[in-house]
Amino acid sequence: MAETRPNQKLPFPILIGDIGGTNARFSIIVDESGETVRFPDVVNRNFSTIDEAIRLSVLSTSSHKPKSLILALAGPIKGDEVPLTNCPWVVRPKVLMADLGFSEVLLLNDFEAQALAAATLQPKDCQPLGPIGEAPSASRVVLGPGTGLGVAGLVRARDMWFPVPGEGGHVDVGPRTARDYQIWPHLTPVHDINATLGRISAEELLSGRGLMNIYRALCKAEGNRTPAFDEPAQVSAAGLAGSDGLASEALELFATYLGRVAGDLALIFMAKGGVFLAGGISPKILPALQSGAFRKAFEDKAPHQAVLQGIATFVVTHPQAALHGLAAFALDPDAFGLSTDGRHWA
Ligand SMILES: Nc1ncnc2c1ncn2[C@@H]1O[C@H](COP(=O)(O)OP(=O)(O)OP(=O)(O)O)[C@@H](O)[C@H]1O
């Protein structure tokens, strides 16, 4: 069974990994000075197991022999066999320790790692959306549209950061404007065979498939037009270029709904330290997020407009933000109130 320990440093060298559904990214933190060795990104499907990916892409290419391992995973962490969402790999800490020589393994949630990053990223790693360019040391929120919609809070208390990885991407979102009421009946809801009326969760709007959901619903609302695009990247490219009216509207609505949900989360966490947009999609649609629709929806929270107007919003542009967060934790675990119960093996 997993063994726990207070937030002591894991033994160096520490291998840190951000394991997504499609790609995995690794670095070795050599020692307390923070000296770090980076490795080329791994395409998950090129390796049948994560053990093989670590062995061939990291261990056999480096002279450093990591003593411990910290991984950020997309998916719930429970028990000694942790399957990944959207990838056939299974993480088995005891097997990794026995076969690859780690004395300790710690598993974190991927958005928890994004939250650790939001606590420690430099201004150069973030692009402000709106007038406020600085994030004070106060509670924060991270949300990231990608394959799904990851959400984490980051509570600031006792001079520490407490990440709160929840399932906030699955909150309900309802229609508000006249245009929303035209579109909503055509959106694909959450698949739930027991429900008589499907619900529209934030993730059904704010993810790659969410952008397609909005675009296809717009096509239906406009006299059942045949969609011109099959992929989210095509919709965003046409929307950014202004070459297709419905793609442009889909992108603007995506920014509006993202602002709405981000504003709700900022209210819930009273995130005066800022809201950070992580994940793969936000940096790719930066001009659409900067155009004003995101920030307008974010602030449109009567009776608390003044609170929201005072909260900074950012797109995280650091290419390996989760690894940055894991490194910050590895080097200074006392700065974080992170519970390692049930996910630390030694
Ligand atoms: N230019 C783009 N515009 C809009 N959506 C995009 C664009 N490029 C990729 N996507 C969509 O983003 C989603 C992938 O998101 P992301 O890059 O964050 O990957 P992930 O699987 O969530 O994470 P990881 O890369 O760690 O495996 C897919 O649904 C993809 O279709």
From TrEMBL:
Top EC class of this enzyme: transferase
EC numbers: 2.7.1.2
GO molecular function list: ATP binding; D-glucose binding; glucokinase activity
Top-rank taxon, per record: Bacteria
Coiled coil location: none
UniProt binding sites for ATP: 17-22
Catalytic activity, reaction form: D-glucose + ATP = D-glucose 6-phosphate + ADP + H(+)
One Pfam family this sequence matches: Glucokinase
Cellular localisation: Cytoplasm
Classification via Gene3D superfamilies: 3.30.420.40, 3.40.367.20
InterPro entries, sorted: ATPase_NBD, Bacterial_glucokinase, Glucokinase
GO BP field: glycolytic process
Keyword field: ATP-binding, Cytoplasm, Glycolysis, Kinase, Nucleotide-binding, Transferase
Family annotation (SUPFAM superfamilies): Actin-like ATPase domain
GO cellular component: cytosol
HAMAP family associated with the record: Glucokinase
Similarity remark: Belongs to the bacterial glucokinase family.
Name assigned to this protein: Glucokinase
Organism: Peteryoungia ipomoeae
Lineage of the organism: Bacteria, Pseudomonadati, Pseudomonadota, Alphaproteobacteria, Hyphomicrobiales
